[in-house]
Structures are given as C-alpha cells and as structure tokens.
Design brief:
The structure is a single chain. This protein is of the alpha/beta class. It has 13 helices and seven strands. It has helices at 8-16, 44-59, 74-77, 79-89, 108-111, 118-124, 153-166, 169-175, 201-222, 232-244, 262-265, 268-278, 282-285; strands at 70-72, 96-100, 176-180, 185-187, 193-194, 226-230, 250-254. The strands form two sheets. The protein has a four-stranded parallel sheet with strand order 3-2-6-7. A hairpin with a 5-residue loop joins strand 4 (185-187) and strand 5 (193-194). Helix 6 runs parallel beside helix 7 and helix 9 (201-222) packs across helix 10 (232-244).
C-alpha cells in the first residue's frame, strides 16, 4: 500500500526496476527486443504504459472492505506479459479503442492481456513473458499464468471473433487496440469474482474516479477517435468520463460476450458483427 509521499517513480521501480520503462520486451519472432532509446519513450506504447504505471500508484492507496477479500492487479504481477502486449500492438495510427471493464479470473488475471483467454493470447497474439503472483491468492483462484488450462468464455469469444474476421492480429491492431477501464480483479471469501458494481458505493466511486482519469489520459496518449465499450457499463462509464474531461471522441458500445449474458449465449458473434457494421468499423477489419 502506498502512502501519500510515494511518487509515481516509486511505483515504476516496483514494476520495472527504476524510473524508466525497461526492456526486455517481447518480439513475435525472437521473444525479446533490444533496449529502447530515449526517443522510443515518445511512442504511443511508452506513453500508454506510463499512464498505467501512474494509475497503479494511485490504486495502491485504496482500501476495500467486505465483500472483497482478495485484490489482484495483473499490471503488477503480470507486467512482463502485459508490457509485451502493449509494446507489440499499441502503435501510431490506431483510431479505435475497445474498452472492457476489468479483468476476468481466467483471462487478464492470468495473462495480463485484456479479455486474455490463454489460448488466444498464446496461439494468436503470440504473447510471451513471465507471470508472477499477487501478494495474497485465494486457494480457488490461483494464478498459473500462461499455463492456465481454465477457459475464459468472454475472452475466447472476443478474440475468437476477431481472429475469424481479421485472420491475422496485425490487421486488427492496424486500426484497433483493446484496454480495460480498471485493471483490478476483486475476489470474495468464497472465491467469487466481484465486479465493480458489487463493491460498496464509496469504494467503487473512489476506484472508478481514478480509472476515469486514467482512461482520459490513455485516450489522449493513443490518439484514438472512437471508444467502443464492451458491455453497457464500460460504454456508459467511458461516455461520462470522456465528456466530463472534454475529450472529444466518439463513444459507442457492443454487447459484452459474457456467458452471464443470455443474449450473448444465443449468438454473440452475429450481434457484434451487425453492430460493428452499423458503426462503420467492420470494413476496417475484414480480411476479404
């Protein structure tokens, strides 16, 4: 837990070892890239990572009460794989940001990648790196990283859809990037995954206020012109936060692929495809 005297650079040290964003970083062919030069710190990926590190500093100051018993932050223990994802796919010229709400226990919590179902992350996105552990783990929600065998349905549906549509990740990421509003996962005493709306209202609002600010900074860093919330909550939060901050971007939404959503279980891909066509996004993503 950070106190009020802890600086952002202190948090960078915890995540990366010093005040800089450090290598090694992954490469789709060789596994890791050589160290960056100072000029590279001006890239969208570097700016985006700095926003996340600053958010981590603020989030560590928060405390949560019942029903929350465990808090995981994959932007700390899975920083290696997360940074691999950002450095590999966050690039100039992207205009669309798909925005989820927060990690799932078998997705980003394991891989450090939004909607990060393991097979999609390893086989399609080709993400590599080490995944550590949160300070305190629920015995039913262990972090096994890229070796996790549990399938996360939301992530499998999300990335599976874009894999079918685009063929190769390079086509998707030419125009799009994927991010979560909140990097934290909350777990109750039973091992239940708790979403932000299930938190006590004061704690929830303190959390989301910080995440809203970071979202505005991330959108500015990326230079996107459209934010597509994955699920109504992410869409509504993005619209409110970006409008209040005077960030002039288009905010839309698509249905969340969660198996908790009965409509998604009836054919999420067709619903998502129709919505993306309506928004004018589909032509950018077709490999036909």
């Amino acid at each position: 837990m950070l106190d009020d005297d802890t600086s952002v650079n202190d948090t960078v040290e915890l995540a990366g070892g010093d005040g800089a964003i450090k290598e090694p970083l992954c490469d789709s062919e060789q596994g890791f890239k050589p160290a960056t030069t100072p000029e590279d710190n001006k890239t969208p990926a570097s700016r985006f990572l700095q926003v996340e590190l600053e958010l981590n500093a603020h989030l560590r100051r928060l405390t949560f009460s019942e029903p929350v018993r465990y808090i995981y932050n994959p932007l700390e223990y899975a920083w290696d794989t997360h940074r691999c994802y950002v450095e590999k796919f966050c690039q100039g010229g992207q205009t669309i940001l798909f925005l989820g709400m927060n990690p799932g226990p078998f997705g980003m919590a394991q891989t450090g990648v939004p909607f990060g179902e393991v097979r999609s992350v390893v086989d399609w996105l080709k993400i590599t790196g080490e995944v550590g552990h949160p300070p305190d783990e629920h015995p039913k929600r262990r972090i096994t990283g890229l070796a996790c065998t549990q399938k996360e349905v939301s992530g499998a549906r999300f990335w599976g859809f874009f894999r079918k549509l685009c063929g190769e990740p390079e086509l998707f990421f030419k125009h799009c990037f994927v991010h979560n509003l909140c990097p934290l996962i909350f777990i109750g005493a039973s091992g239940k995954n708790l979403t932000p709306p299930e938190l006590p209202i004061g704690e929830r609002e303190a959390l989301l206020a910080l995440c809203d600010t970071a979202l505005c900074q991330a959108v500015e860093a990326l230079g996107v012109t459209t934010v597509i919330g994955v699920g109504r909550l992410a869409e509504q939060r993005a619209r409110r936060a970006l409008s209040a901050a005077g960030v002039n971007v288009r905010v839309e939404g698509i249905m969340h692929p969660s198996p908790r959503n009965p409509q998604a279980n009836k054919g999420w891909e067709e619903v998502a495809k129709a919505k993306l066509a309506e928004l004018g996004v589909l032509p950018l993503l077709s490999n036909m």
